[in-house]
Amino acid sequence: MVDLRSDTVTRPSPAMRQAMAEAEVGDDVYGEDPTVNKLERTVAAMLGKECGLFVPSGTMANQIAILAHTERGDELFIHRESHAYYYEGAAATLWAGVMVTLLEGSEGTFSPDELKSRVRPPNIHHPRPRLVLLENTHNRAGGAALGPDRLDPVMTASHELGLAVHVDGARLFNAAVALGVPAERLVREADSVSLCLSKGLGAPVGSVLVGAPDFIERARRFRKWLGGGMRQAGVLAAAGLVALGNVGRLADDHRRARELRDGLTALGYRAWGPSVPTNMVMVDLEGDAQPMIDAARERGVLIGAVSPHRLRLVTHLDVADDDIHRALDVFHALRGYDGHGR
Ligand code: TLP
């Protein structure tokens, strides 16, 4: 099977499994797991922040960040296509009790003016404006890599308005590699960042949330609260440390996504990507996505849909050049497919 559903599907490499087997461990709830501590320090340093916190998933990292930056009744500003709003249930409302205000703009971003127009002055009738959440790369925008020119002005405006900024950097290193800008630079203005180890970097599980010491101290409390305090988690952190060695090869995933997109376009598909693409290709269909997904699966290619008429194809560590050719062969065979086997 060629699995293009997501970069979350990778399996740990032999080197990763070896590192997991040999990991030095302790009880991380006591802060005594040396491998977890090393991973947290390493990711924090890579992203130019002081402290890190290892958590089970990207969703939990985002939700802990929202909890740690806000109080109940505060207001969170977020793009309507962002993962933390679109794909995390009503978690921000459930856990943090924040009011979510949705913003619009191209490629998952919004302008400082759009933000300013939505932030209301202090008044007992209004929620307290508190947090802006940005996403880089932006998943539903087709894996858009957003450079400092796109995000810095919003982050600066947020701070001028007295708002904290969290960056969902699940795929931040994809953005850094595609833009040729250090990851640290992309989040220089951010108060906190979450990074996923289990997407393009290839770890089986885990994310790291980074920020200032007092923020991470609050975050640690909320991690426990959500049941994310793991014990001998060094076995997982060890895989994460190996995964950080995969940053350089993300360029291969981006090249393969480009080949896939070019191949699909040549076959007559409406394949598209953002202005700075990474490891995703979106394909808009005339008909429903599901019959196409089922037909591709029967032919050995797994793909996903992000809306009823839109496919998403994602390249990753376990997709080789040959797999791109195989996928294109299947799309060739399915050209004009109408969901009735024709
Ligand atoms: N994204 C998954 C699905 O949930 C859609 C995927 O296949 O792309 N932030 C971003 C930007 C993400 O894309 C994801 C996962 C998360 C956070 C959540 O990470 P996990 O799955 O570890 O909770």
Describe the structure.
- The chain is α/β, with parallel strands linked by helices and 342 residues long.
- The two termini are 23 Å apart.
- It has 2 domains: 14-245, 3-Layer(aba) Sandwich (Aspartate Aminotransferase, domain 2), CATH 3.40.640; 249-333, Aspartate Aminotransferase, domain 1.
- The chain is built from 14 helices and 13 strands.
- Strands 2-8-7-6-5-3-4 form a 7-stranded mixed beta sheet, with helices on both faces. Strands 9-10-13-12 form a 4-stranded antiparallel beta sheet. A two-stranded parallel ribbon has the order 1-11.
- The protein is globular and about 60 Å long.
- Helix 1 packs antiparallel against helix 11 (234-243) and helix 3 crosses helix 10 (213-225).
- It has helices spanning 14-22, 34-46, 58-69, 83-86, 91-96, 112-118, 148-160, 172-179, 183-186, 213-225, 234-243, 250-266, 289-298, 321-333; strands at 2-3, 51-55, 74-79, 99-103, 128-135, 164-169, 192-196, 207-211, 270-272, 280-284, 301-302, 304-307, 310-314.
- The structure holds ligand TLP.
